[in-house]
Amino acid sequence: MTNTGNLGTIEATNPVLTVAPLKEDTEMLRATEKITALYCRLSQEDANEGDSNSITNQKDILLRYAKEHRFPNPTFFVDDGYSGTNYDRPGFQQMLSEIEAGKVAVVLSKDLSRLGRNSSLTGLYINFTFPKYGVRYIAINDHFDTIDPNSTDNDVAGIKNWFNEFFAKDTSRKIRAVQKAKGEQGIPLTTNVPFGYRKDPEDRTKWVVDEAAALVVKRIFKLCMEGRGPMQIAKLLQAEQVLNPTAYKRREGINTPSPETADPYHWNPNTVVHILERREYTGCTVNFKTYTNSIWDKKQRETPIEKQAVFYNTHPAIIEQEVFDKVQEIRKQRHRRTKTGKSSLFSGMVYCADCGAKMRYCTTNYFEKRQDHFVCASYRSNTGTCSAHFIRAVVLEELVWMHMKTVISYVTRHEAHFRAVMEHRLRLSSEEAVRGYKKRLAQAERRLGELDRLFIRIYEDNVAGKLSDERFALMSKTYEDEQMQLKAEIQTLQQEIEVQERQIENLEQFIQRVHKYEDLQEMTPYALRELVKGIYIEAPDKSSGKRRQGIRISYDLVGFIPVDELMKQETA
Questions:
Q1: pLDDT at 572 over 60
Q2: Which of 212, 368, 472, 514 could form a disulfide with 411 if both were Cys (CB 3.0 to 4.6 A apart)?
């Protein structure tokens, strides 16, 4: 006889509950080795309806029914906290495994809705899977029993299954409506507070800064600003024995869905990336970041950024907005480390002034520091599309630092004149750029309208028989592809226009940044990346008999600064 105590039925994470047979049932047990599966399920929504659907209540009903009808080897399979809209539930899957192994004679559930709320799949299990393996199914409160297919109660089972599905859909709609209302009010929808914050004990919908964790978050952003990638940051934190977010939350007694790690000091680079990309650290709440297609498809999909709801200044910021924005720019550069493991503080920032390609950082374990250099990525042993544009890293560092010192000194000593000159330059360049962008934007919007009219025309021709289905499919696909490209271009143009129109505001922000570094004595990676956006290396000039090489520095927010012109005006 099968040892029912080893069947491994599941009650969420609890062990199997097997009920010992009554003495008077021993004769019945000898007649069969199969079990009676008592299936219980409770979702969070069902729990809100009261105690009638509780797991305890279901167990009492099922066990009593099994005893009264002398069903042998009653064994519980329990899913506590699982939705009935799909069948990917541990308890049900364990029961299904026993059914497919031929070990189950009867399946009991309190009613049809306990088995599931997906009418199609519920019907498939009842009418196909269970009969295939010779399993009798009984839904007690619905008076449903597959042993009597001609019963009137069995005839309405399909209607009940449909109603159970409708109930699930209706409940889902209500929950979504409540979540939508909360989300639109700026109440955080996430139940898992980002690392660096805690829920405010006086108002659980608010967040307060967790000072210890916030220091780690600030350190991660600082390291990224200095040019370190997620892998480097993760290794550094691990080497310094910094608790990872999961280990920290568990130590502090903060709820977290993440499983405990074997090494509490192990940092996954993806964890670092997730922290660097969370806008909530700037003090805003971001809702509707993900969505699901339906109650059947629970896969979380990312909502486009423009469709997410952002509410600013809802909690204290850990990271300044401009630092966060700068980090996102740095993250986009994604430069590869050399095989030696070494990297330059300029990595990802240096470009060829002629072809625009990135300059590759070159070094070996045998190089002295003065031998490390940058070379145009398009250059391939004089056979590429560009010349080498070779420059040593130490020379580049000296030239950039000299330029930065000059800019910092001039802005702090002659702020008013600097502002006036740059405002004039920015306004002229901005007006010209905006005119070009708006002209192209108008063209793109006109063409988009034309495509809509063309699509309607070919649709009417297809319906009238003037255009074949094959031709219609080909033309509509062409129009749709062009529309997608135009919509993307329109969005980009609109963003560029907004950027240009904020030029004066950006100038003020740049001046404030410069004032932070009035007393800077040497170039630091953080200062470099906060002030400089890109460095462009020109081809060397040997016409004078000496090798001379110029660089052009594009500063963040303001672009190229005419230092020589400003200095001449100062001495005039």
A1: no
A2: 514
Instruction: For the chain, give the mean pLDDT.
Output: 83
How far is 467 from 458, CA to CA, in rounded Å? 7
Question: What is the per-residue pLDDT for 180?
Answer: 76
Contacts of 439 (CB under 8 A, 6+ apart): none
**Contact criterion met (CB below 8 Å) for 324 and 283:** no
Compute and round to an integer the Cα radius of gyration of the chain. Answer: 34
d(CA 454, CA 334): 42
134-148, 166-180, 258-272, 484-498: the lowest-pLDDT one: 166-180
Q: Is residue 327 within 8 Å of 221, Cβ to Cβ?
A: yes
Q: What are the C-alpha distances in Å from 541 to residues 13, 398, 544?
A: 73, 19, 8
Question: CA–CA separation, 299 vs 301, rounded Å?
Answer: 6
Q: What is the mean pLDDT of residues 371-376?
A: 88
CA 485 → CA 31, 489, 491, 498, distances in Å?
A: 71, 6, 10, 20
Average pLDDT over residues 516-522: 92
User: Which 3 state secondary structure label does DSSP give 540?
Assistant: coil
Q: What angle do CA 511, 513, 515 make, to 5 degrees?
A: 75
SS3 label, residue 333: helix
Comparing 62 with 340, the larger pLDDT belongs to 62
Angle between helices 211-225 and 269-276 (to 10 degrees): 90
DSSP string for residues in 93-126: HHHHHHHHTT-EEEEEESSHHHH-S-HHHHHHII
Q: What count of residues does the chain have?
A: 572
Nearest in space to 537 (alpha carbons), one of 402, 373, 407 = 373
Question: DSSP H helical segments within 151-286, as ranges?
Answer: 152-155, 157-184, 211-225, 230-239, 245-252, 269-276
H or E element that contains 42: strand 35-42
Confidence band of 151 (pLDDT split at 50, 70, 90): low
Rounded distance between C-alpha atoms, residue 554 and residue 329, angstroms = 14
> pLDDT value at position 171?
63
Residues in CB range of 99: below 8 A, 6 or more apart = 37, 107, 129, 130, 133, 135
CA distance to 204, 236, 272, 331, 340, per residue, from 208 (Å): 10, 27, 21, 27, 43
- Scanning the structure block, which residue is given the tokens 């599931």? 116
- Write the pLDDT tens digit of every residue in 350-362: 999 988 888 888 8
What single letter denotes the amino acid at residue 502? R
The strand order across the sheet containing 136-139 reads: 17-18, 74-80, 35-42, 104-109, 136-139, 144-145
Confidence of residue 434 (pLDDT cuts 50, 70, 90): confident
Rounded to whole angstroms, the Cα distance separating 392 from 361 reads: 9
Class of residue 388 by CB neighbours under 10 A (exposed 0-12, middle 13-18, buried 19+): buried
Per-residue model confidence (pLDDT) at position 255? 84
